[in-house]
């Protein structure tokens, strides 16, 4: 069964970027510390990243994040979705207007202009098709940014919340939670490594 998984790294004080994020500074000032785990040699970090990448049938992201990863300082042949894993699922971008051109033309991009629920539905269809082709269950991963994941949680679109809690206090930046609708979570797993704490919750 295809699940909708919100997967994001977050600081101890609840931010998914540092201050002043932008196309040339995607994670904001100091925000690189959030993703130290994705490039570490810790075997548990590598396993978490490898398993998450392997089960991704389609990935949803917002336009701001797309502009970062498709920008000149974004993904390349050595570092893409899943960091060193460089996975290539289908990518669905929620946007009010598609870009005029795409740098990463070797990736499968779909641009949805009719809102987040439609983008998630399109990604689910792609993930289900990939599941059928590969003969295994694949998921839809909501990779961010933070506002998109918050909106998905508020809309009841998320089945699983996967947080990578970095041991850093950023002080300000882009918050993951901004006082949306209450949600009950059931903790399913906790993996502590030298760089982060990986937390998985079912969203009820």
Automatic annotation (TrEMBL):
GO terms for molecular function: 5-amino-6-(5-phosphoribosylamino)uracil reductase activity. Residues 4-195 form the Bacterial bifunctional deaminase-reductase C-terminal domain. SUPFAM superfamilies: Dihydrofolate reductase-like. It holds the Pfam family RibD_C. GO terms for biological process: riboflavin biosynthetic process. This is Dihydrofolate reductase family protein. It comes from Nonomuraea cypriaca.
